[in-house]
Amino acid sequence: MKNLKFIMPLVLASVSAPVFAGHAEDDWPEPVKPYRTGQVLFDRLEVTRTDNDESLIVWDMLAWYGGDRNRIYFKSEGENQKDDGEPTELESAEVLASRLITPFWELQGGIGTRGSLASGANRENYFVISLFGVAPYRFEMDNSITINEDGDIAASVEAEYDLRLSQVSYLQPRLEIAAALTDAEDYGRPSGFNDVRVGLRYRYELAREFAPYIGAYWSRSLGDKADQIRADGGDESETGVVVGVRMWF
Question: Domains in the chain and their CATH numbers?
Answer without folding.
Answer: 38-248 (2.40.160.40)
